[in-house]
Amino acid sequence: MRVLAGLRSFGARFRRATSGSTAIEFAMVIGPFLALLFAIIETSLVYFCEFTVDAAVQKAARSIRTGAYQTGHYNATDFRKVVCQDLPAFIPCDQNVMVDVRAFDTFAQAADNMPNPLNADGSINSNFSQFNMGGPSQVVIVSIFYDWKLIAHFPGLGQFTGKVGLGMGNMPDGSRMIAATTAFQTEAY
Predict the structure, then answer these.
(1) What share of the chain in percent tops pLDDT 70?
(2) Residue 153 neighbours by CB under 8 Å, 6+ apart
(3) What pLDDT shows up at residue 62?
(4) Does the residue 6 lie in any domain?
(5) Please, which residues have CB within 8 angstroms of residue 64's CB and are 6 or more apart in sequence?
């Protein structure tokens, strides 16, 4: 009986004691809170980057469509500089940005002959980049691929989930490929 009464008094004292509970609650909440905060920030950056890359492709492709670059004798380096000017400062325009411009005679030919930018293992094909702006009334496909090294990527956990990894990564190494493509027929300049 005394043991039972002792347990009851211990339980009552334990429920009333509040010293250190704030620190314990903070320790339990801060980890998930920070994980959620960083996930929101990284997701926002990825979507902002995707929209910015798409806008850069559309703007640069407009000059190919009107024939301004063809008659101005732009080369691949000049075109890459124009594209990079429209990318945000946190996207370094280095080897992680691939620019591909291909010309075809018809849309059907473009659909049948456009190669895959990925290798069989899912990595980016480093030989994919080509630069051919075509001529008047030709079909041109302009693509930009950016391999973003994510802040929070967990490529090793893919073996448990069946996915490439956890988070925003869609490449085998846990990074994110951001791609923007536009297809159009050039004007008869």
Answers:
(1) 83
(2) 165, 166, 167, 168, 169, 173, 174, 175
(3) 93
(4) no
(5) 70, 101, 133, 134, 140, 142, 186
